[in-house]
Amino acid sequence: MIKFKHGLVLASVVLALAGCKSDDPDTGKMALSITDAPVDGAEAVVVEFTGIEVKGLGESLNYDFDTPQSIDLLQLTGDESLELLPETTVNAGQYQWIRLKVNAERGVTDSYIDIDGARYSLYVPSGAQTGLKLNRPFTVAAGGVSNFTIDFDLRKSVHEPQNGSGDYFLRPTLRIVDNLEVGHISGLVDETLLNAEGCSEASGVYLFAGYDAETDDIDANEPDPITTTTVEMNTDGFYEYEIGFVQAGDYTLAFTCEAANDDPETDDAITFSTTQNVTVTVDEVAVVDF
């Protein structure tokens, strides 16, 4: 199973749709960058991007790269990001979806994952046709600022080879949030919680909607965590976690020292040893220690 390291468990594709004041009140400006968090057990997760498509109500905007861009997502951690599309003027109004075009075919290491010194193809089913697609409407504001983040959750998206295949599967789980409405969560974890009886080699913090929420593992059943993150030792020798791009509101954080046993393909009996309520405020970091 793929296990996820320090920082945001989720991989975040940062979409800045910036409508600026200009001579044309019917346009805005769009720029697209990508950021990510590392994957425990992997030395590299490389995706080959070939372009971007944005679908409006009456038009499709296609931005194809002159040459494919092979991006190691593990190099884009924390507040690091890489611009995929420079600031571009587009028509203001509603758009239906965003698609990141990729090369990620079966048996070909155009996109790939490196684990324990071995390289495996990273395959996106129907990737040549649909790429990494977010099917959710959004609006580009005219004469204002519209900033969004697409969160690319690797824990839910990367799956081990199946049915004798040597390919790792990438089934993207994406969500979009408004950057004007998000904050962040971070905190420390007592080392004794990580070393309790029955713990696996990785511990995690799961985020659920609402106070005193019911908790569960990652699978097809509800409740499904909004996102998760792995606990890691920082440079000062303390264990910490971080979750970013969380829409303002009330949540439940749940700690488990059995995160390595959570397979997104199955219903696993994960024990959450402690939970805490947290309120996320726009542009602030909520600090919650365990």
Query: What's the helical proportion of residues?
Result: under 10%
Order of helices and strands: EEEEEEEEEEHEEEHEEEEHEEEEEEE
Number of beta-strand segments: 24
Q: Quickly count the domains.
A: 2
Q: Unreliable runs, pLDDT <50, ≥5 residues?
A: 1-11, 16-22
* Main structural class: mainly beta
Proportion of beta-strand residues:
over 45%
Separation of the first and last Cα atoms: 26 Å
Shape: globular
Rounded mean pLDDT is 81
Largest sheet: 9 strands, mixed
Q: How large is the count of helical segments?
A: 3
Question: How large is the radius of gyration?
Answer: 19 Å
Features:
nine-stranded mixed β-sheet; mainly beta; 290 residues; 3 helices; Immunoglobulin-like; five-stranded antiparallel β-sheet
Description:
The protein is mostly beta strands and 290 residues long. The chain has two domains: 3-172; 182-287, Immunoglobulin-like (Sandwich). It has three helices and 24 strands. It has helices spanning 127-130, 154-157, 191-194, and strands at 3-4, 10-18, 27-34, 39-40, 42-56, 60-72, 82-91, 93-103, 112-115, 118-123, 132-134, 138-140, 146-153, 158-159, 168-170, 174-178, 182-189, 204-209, 227-230, 232-233, 239-247, 249-256, 274-280, 285-287. Strands 5, 6, 8, 9, 10, 11, 12, 14 and 15 form a nine-stranded mixed β-sheet that branches. The chain has a five-stranded antiparallel β-sheet with strand order 7-3-2-13-16. A hairpin with a 3-residue loop joins strand 5 and strand 6. The longest helix is centred in the middle third of the chain and has 4 residues, at 127-130. It starts with a strand and ends with a strand. Mean pLDDT is 81; it is low at 1-11 and 16-22.
